[in-house]
Design goal:
By secondary structure, the chain is mainly beta. It has one domain: Sulfite Oxidase, Chain A, domain 2, CATH 3.90.420.10. The protein is built from three helices and eleven strands. The protein is globular and about 40 Å long.
């Protein structure tokens, strides 16, 4: 039996939560750049990415807004595979979408074999409202860390706050530890303090 993290509710729905409008991304001009504290900075076109080994995982996801989905199938390129290509020196990642100005920081220690650059969800191309044609997929952390419309991966020597982390979300976001927001700062107070009525990006 699947163990549901404390405070989560299982749903069959896939809520659309974004910190911005949904962009239209042209795969003919798309590039994924991996840079920063690495030995080999690399950039991939869509065609080059499609030529890399693909993986398929069946895994649960957990949103900071308390919904969870169980046993979905995700397909893409393992993040570990891409990182091995660039030979990272740093211990942290910043996953960015330059299309919408969104970012999320992730400790390298949370990158396992299930983490990927994802293109498909339950055997179909990822819908653009859910980050298609390509998003980060980090099921080891709350789902706001899985940056939609991913086009940049920066390897960092030191941890830095991303979009929601600057607005009161936890720097790590481990759902097993309920790391949702800053210590001592609940969600309602966060909204009042920052004057920010946007939902979290998923």
């Amino acid at each position: 039996m699947t163990k549901i993290p404390h405070g989560q509710i299982v749903t069959d729905k896939f809520p659309i939560l974004s910190a911005s409008k949904t962009p239209n991304i042209d795969i003919k001009t798309y590039k994924l750049r991996i840079y920063g504290s690495v030995e080999n900075e690399l950039s991939f076109t869509w065609e080059q990415l499609m030529g890399l080994p693909m993986s398929r995982v069946k895994v649960d996801i957990h949103c900071v807004t308390r919904w969870s989905r169980l046993g979905d199938i995700w397909e893409g390129i393992k993040l570990k595979y891409l990182l091995d290509m660039v030979k990272p020196k740093g211990n942290f990642l910043m996953l960015r979408s330059s299309y919408v100005g969104y970012s999320a920081n992730v400790p390298m220690s949370y990158i396992n074999e299930d983490c990927m650059v994802a293109f498909k969800f339950n055997n179909l191309p990822l819908e653009k409202e859910h980050g298609g044609p390509v998003r980060a997929f980090i099921p080891t952390l709350y789902f706001w860390k899985s940056t939609k419309w991913l086009d940049e991966i920066e390897v960092m020597d030191e941890d830095k706050a991303g979009f929601w982390e600057k607005r009161g979300y936890n720097m790590r976001g481990d759902y097993n530890k309920e790391e949702r927001y800053w210590d001592g700062l609940n969600f309602v107070n966060k909204l009042v303090f920052f004057g920010n009525k946007d939902k979290d990006d998923e």
